[in-house]
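Researcher: I'm comparing several assemblies side by side, and this is the next one on my list. It has 355 residues spread over two chains. Same procedure as the others: predict the full complex and return the structure.
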Amino acid sequence: MRGVTDGWTLLAIAGLALVTVLTRCFFFILDRPWSLPDWAHRALNYAPVAALAGVVIPEVVMADGRLVTTLLDARLFASLAGAVVYFWRRSVLLTLVLGMAVYLPLHLKLGW
Amino acid sequence: MFFLPSVYRHPEFRNGVRDMAPLAPGIGAWGLMTGVAMVKSGMSVVEALAMTLFVYAGSSQLAAIPLIVAGAPIWVILATGFCVNLRFVVFSLHLRPYLMHMPRWRRLVNGYFTADLSYAMFTRRFAEPPLDPAGRQAQQAYLAGNYGITWAAWMGLSVAGIVLANLIPANWGLGFAGVLCLVGILCSLANTRMRMLSAALAGASAVALYSLPLKLNIVAAIAIAVAACYLLEKRLPDPAVSP
């Protein structure tokens, strides 16, 4: 699918745009005031972090559908370095910059 | 609504721009890498441009990339994007009294453009919703200036990233920059013990259930983590419950 525009993908993109509007405007789309039940508010607390972890952790620790069995993988070190930098300096941008600074040499020079 | 003269000629519009300006380079850099990551992960230029122009939500765009590339069904992509964006639902409850004086289409336009940083700056500057027409004008102008510069910085550099990505060889692996952004956002969201547990449970479940078809492992991982944290939270004594 590399580089080829695909109708289903465009449909998914249109859907994601609607999701942006729906979530950013959630409580002021309707004119009358309303609220969520208590359990939903509690679930809201945990769902975003769960969704991100569900997407990102397999992207880091898996290759070709299975758990990586070698430590010689640039993604592991880059992600670890990025996470440590985040908790040290609280900056997503620094996580990206330092993570790539670890990733690129390992990936390009050593082929990890 | 930075495109209306009545909004961008208001003096508060400039204050909104000025407050956000120091953060604009960081927003732009993130947009640049998102643009590069989309193309280098295998999306076409048209798809990447459409996504950046219409979706306008960095973390849900980045989370959708691996799902789109893997050919996941649309409902899985939308459900994941919805969950990633749920923080905005909380913001919208807070913003409601500030925006309800507007007709619906204006509320929707303002809501669509108000991302995390604009929400934070706007509610910090205006602790209370507007009381009179002058206050409404001022608040709307400030918000529009604030998200206007955010939007311009994000869009300009995202498009630059999409164009530049074609000049960079695929074997550099720059698609990984999107994953690293998500690692940073994940760390920023995991700010209580219960949320760290939610992240750990979801990550482990998504790996363990990887063989499920249609990327259902992600949906299952979210359900498992949220249900487990919800049930566990009810058993904990109150002080341990995270804010």
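Model: For your comparison table: Chain B touches chain A through 95 residues (CB under 8 Å).
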